[in-house]
Amino acid sequence: MISETSIDSADTPLKPSDAASRQKRVLLVEDDRSVRRYLEVILQRAGYEVFTAGDGLEAMKVALGSPVDVVLTDAVMPHMSGQEFARFMRTTPKLSQIPIVLLTGQENKQVMAPAEKLVDAFLNKPVKIEELKGCLVELLQARLSV
Question: What are phi and psi of 123, to 5 degrees?
């Protein structure tokens, strides 16, 4: 017998777990339009409000003009790399405490070493959806407990 209170988890969006009921806001920075749109849809379906930017310069404007809870940025982009954008975030007082996730297709740890102190997490491309969702939830929960 199936309970009337059971739900189909495939049809139910996963909500970020946190104490606040407010929808969490993600700044997604990705220069590849198709990857950006794909990740945007995934994040929206997971219950996040998503702001997007196509490069680091555009992301600077969005970050300064819109309150965000977490940043998801590509490492290699035109005009300003993900590392340079992370450095901007860390040196801007109003943005310095926002968690940053760096998306990279580079598995060479030496190449990514300079970013280690600037970002809170690394995710390799292609991004695994469950890994992305878990990472965001973990970072947002950690931010709440500080």
Answer: -130, 135
